[in-house]
């Protein structure tokens, strides 16, 4: 599923940079797989969520934590149940993804009633709602329903309105909203250093925290001009210190590596830091 390239010297590599964010489908030959990234950022990460009903501990807030192991379950699987995400500000929305999860579905084979049906609504104030989108085409199962809007929409609230799922429970692990917030992308990361361990398969990368960054990409590769690997991190998983660090545990012994850092927020992506060699 990752766009892949062969370099002139025979190296094959696949882009994993922002690969669970919306990407363009190529229609012609592409020289740089990273150029397929739309630039639409995740607007819903850790944002408040509310639901029309909840079953036990499976609360609505779990649909914005980017953890597929946590999820919301409605008290009843019936049409009209709602799940709402508050983006915190009026942003430009470009796409929405609904990731269902299989919680005690009681279904173990295909059947005519196994399909997903829903609609999406949007609002700027949480009181007046307008249609946003709904799946088109014939009824079918959509365990990970992705809907790209034909035109960008300005909205603060995005609401899922349930129609049908074929399992016993309505359960959603992620309600992901993509687009761009107003403002500026983070500043360029600085103070990047990389230290390989005695076991050369491992290295520790350190850099200075970037104010306002929601996350970081560690980009590394076997040439300074070919950073083909990406390790994506959320800023709130890295502690609160002024210097951040992360261990890489996927290197090859006896091979040199170079590394750089880019920061991102809901507006966009920073310039890439200075590229340094792992020592």
What does the model show?
By secondary structure, the chain is mainly β. It folds into two domains: 42-179, Galactose-binding domain-like (Jelly Rolls, Sandwich); 184-277, Immunoglobulin-like (Sandwich). Helix content is 0%, strand content 40%. The protein has no helices and 17 strands. It has strands at residues 4-6, 12-14, 41-42, 49-51, 72-73, 82-100, 117-123, 130-133, 144-164, 171-180, 193-196, 203-208, 215-221, 229-234, 243-248, 258-264, 276-277. The strands form four sheets. Strands 3, 4, 5, 6, 7, 8, 9 and 10 form an eight-stranded antiparallel sheet that branches. A hairpin with a 6-residue loop joins strand 11 (193-196) and strand 12. It starts with a strand and ends with a strand. The mean pLDDT is 96.
Briefly, what is this?
The protein has strands at residues 4-6, 12-14, 41-42, 49-51, 72-73, 82-100, 117-123, 130-133, 144-164, 171-180, 193-196, 203-208, 215-221, 229-234, 243-248, 258-264, 276-277. With 279 residues, it is mainly β.
């Amino acid at each position: 599923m990752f766009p892949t390239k062969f370099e002139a010297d025979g190296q094959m590599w696949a882009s994993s940079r922002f690969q669970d964010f919306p990407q363009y489908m190529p229609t012609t030959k592409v020289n740089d797989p990273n150029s397929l990234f739309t630039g639409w950022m995740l607007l819903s990460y850790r944002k408040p969520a509310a639901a029309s009903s909840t079953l036990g501990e499976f609360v609505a807030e779990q649909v914005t934590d980017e953890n597929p192991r946590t999820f919301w379950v409605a008290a009843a699987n019936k049409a009209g149940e709602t799940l709402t995400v508050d983006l915190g500000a009026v942003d430009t929305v470009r796409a929405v993804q609904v990731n269902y999860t299989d919680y005690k579905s009681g279904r173990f084979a295909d059947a005519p009633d196994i399909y997903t049906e829903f609609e999406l609504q949007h609002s700027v104030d949480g009181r007046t709602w307008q249609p946003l989108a709904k799946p088109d085409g014939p009824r079918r199962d959509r365990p990970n329903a992705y809907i790209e809007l034909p035109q960008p929409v300005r909205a603060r609230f995005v609401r899922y309105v349930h129609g049908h799922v074929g399992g016993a429970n309505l359960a959603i692990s992620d309600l992901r909203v993509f687009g761009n917030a107003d403002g500026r992308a983070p500043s360029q990361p600085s103070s990047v250093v990389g230290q390989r361990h005695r076991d050369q398969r491992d290295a520790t990368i350190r850099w200075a925290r970037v104010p306002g960054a929601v996350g970081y990409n560690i980009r590394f590769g076997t040439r300074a001009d070919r950073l083909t690997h990406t390790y994506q991190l959320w800023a709130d998983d890295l502690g609160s210190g002024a210097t951040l660090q992360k261990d890489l545990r996927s290197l090859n012994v006896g091979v040199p590596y170079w590394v750089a850092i880019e920061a991102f927020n809901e507006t966009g992506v920073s310039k890439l830091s200075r590229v340094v060699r792992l020592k």
